[in-house]
Amino acid sequence: MMSQPMVQVSHVWKRYGALDVLKDVSLEVQKGEVVSIIGPSGSGKSTLLRCINYLEKVDSGVIRIAGNPPPSDERTLNLARSRIGVVFQHFNLFPHMTALGNVIEGPVQVKKMPRSESIEMARSLLARVGLSDKENAYPHQLSGGQKQRVAIARALAMQPEVMLFDEATSALDPELVGEVLAVMRDLASSGMTMLVVTHEMEFARDVSDRIVVLVDGSIVEEGPPGQVLSVPKNKRTREFLSRVLEGRRAQLPAALGAR
């Protein structure tokens, strides 16, 4: 008997005006599973993550985290969100707080954790993301990759059951992408349940248990990375992967010329 899914998305529709952004999307993610969500820009990937975190209200369908019913009031909404860590494209760090201050803010203010305990945990998390020496640095003193690693530590400080990554490397310079992906790989290997919206196909292949392809608001294909990325069954998946490959080929001459 399969255990209760950690994330259960059942027949979800999301509309903005007359536009259907998500169309009858159903998805289950088991505890400890890493699922990458790929697809063209504008296909609804970020909207799906925002619905899973209850930042967006669905028009129909149900989303459950760890088997719990959708939140019905402010208290249950905050409880549901506390189970979910989110890392966005842009770091959204508090500019007036140090790296350490950013990481302890949630545990102290939301979870009412004693400050001394939260500081100890924050230092451990900053060490985990390779930033022990940056605890007193302010965001403007950090590189993009360092800011994103602080954002990951901040999300982990809430001790979430699920981590959502929404194009966590897309706003970074190419040379900084690797340091963030390394932290995400470490999280995946530790057994964290993760949903990752990404255009990093190599990362998706190496780390994911499953890949989901979202096109025009609908899941058109899902399966093991080797199958989806190497021998996709759906025409829309093949078209998307072909465009990704063409884009990389176009970037290669420019990258070589910059050396």
Describe the protein.
Helices cover 41% and strands 22% of the residues. The protein has helices at residues 45-52, 74-82, 99-109, 115-128, 144-156, 174-189, 201-207, 225-230, 235-257, and strands spanning 7-16, 19-29, 34-38, 60-65, 84-87, 162-166, 193-197, 210-215, 218-223. The strands form two sheets. The chain has a six-stranded mixed beta sheet, sandwiched between helices. The relative contact order is 0.16.
Compact overview of the structure:
By secondary structure, the chain is of the alpha/beta class.
Task: Present the secondary structure layout.
Elements: E1 7-16, E2 19-29, E3 34-38, H1 45-52, E4 60-65, H2 74-82, E5 84-87, H3 99-109, H4 115-128, H5 144-156, E6 162-166, H6 174-189, E7 193-197, H7 201-207, E8 210-215, E9 218-223, H8 225-230, H9 235-257
Parallel strand pairs: 3-7, 3-8, 5-6, 6-7
Antiparallel strand pairs: 1-2, 1-4, 8-9
- The rounded distance between the terminal residues' Cα atoms is 55 Å
Helix content: 40-55%
Radius of gyration over alpha carbons?
19 Å
- The tally of helices reads 9
Beta strands, count: 9
The major sheet is characterized as: 6 strands, mixed
Poorly predicted parts: none
Spell out the key features of this protein:
9 strands, 9 helices, six-stranded mixed beta sheet, alpha/beta, 259 residues, three-stranded antiparallel beta sheet
